[in-house]
């Protein structure tokens, strides 16, 4: 009877060791960018602008980057991303895939508005 109990404990220990070993390998080699439970990624909402009832644009500060995200019923999509230091510069960052001399219409207006919102938020924070 006690042999069955010892065998069960050894089997349980082997299964647990296999699970923890597999988790270590997955975190270390398969998903190296995954966060450990104790680590926190600081995300700050710099501004939000509603475009339509269920569609908006959000400027987020993640570490030293500013990411502009479009939010709709279908999900979220990154519109542009730039360094937080670029917010204070005169030149506005362009969305990915748009050349410097190309007219942008609505995209240019949206980018200018977002740039202004981000600058205001950063100025309020530094003051």
Structure, briefly:
39% of the residues lie in helices and 28% in strands. The protein contains 2 helices and 4 strands; from the N terminus they run H-E-E-E-E-H.
Summarize the structure in words:
This protein is an alpha+beta fold and 127 residues long. The protein has two domains: 38 residues; 78 residues, no CATH class. Helix content is 39%, strand content 28%. It is built from two helices and four strands. It has a four-stranded antiparallel β-sheet, covered by helices on one side. A hairpin with a 2-residue loop joins strand 2 and strand 3. The longest helix is centred in the first third of the chain and has 29 residues. The termini are far apart.
Sequence-ordered SSE layout with sheet pairings:
Elements: H1 2-30, E1 43-52, E2 55-62, E3 65-72, E4 75-83, H2 106-126
Give the assembly state of these chains: single chain
Contiguous uncertain segments of 5+ residues: none
How many domains comprise the coordinates? 2
Number of E strands: 4
Biggest pleated-sheet summary: 4 strands, antiparallel
The secondary-structure element order is HEEEEH
Number of helices, counting only DSSP H or I runs of 4 residues or more: 2
What gross morphology would you assign?
Answer: elongated
Mean pLDDT reading: 78
Q: Could you tell me the strand content as a percent range?
A: 25-35%
Helix and strand composition category: alpha+beta
Q: Roughly how many Å apart are the termini?
A: 74 Å
| Helical content class | 25-40%
Widest sheet: strand ordering? 1-2-3-4
How much is the radius of gyration in Å? 24 Å
């Amino acid at each position: 009877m006690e042999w069955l109990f010892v065998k069960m404990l050894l089997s349980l220990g082997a299964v647990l060791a296999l699970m923890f070993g597999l988790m270590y390998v997955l975190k270390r080699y398969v998903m190296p960018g995954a966060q450990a439970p104790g680590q926190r990624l600081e995300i700050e909402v710099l501004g939000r602008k509603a475009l339509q009832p269920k569609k908006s644009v959000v400027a987020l500060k993640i570490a030293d980057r500013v990411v502009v995200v479009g939010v709709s019923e279908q999900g979220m999509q990154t519109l542009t991303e730039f360094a937080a230091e670029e917010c204070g510069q005169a030149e506005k960052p362009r969305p990915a895939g748009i050349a410097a001399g190309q007219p942008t219409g609505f995209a240019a207006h949206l980018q200018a508005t977002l740039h202004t919102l981000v600058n205001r938020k950063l100025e309020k924070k530094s003051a």
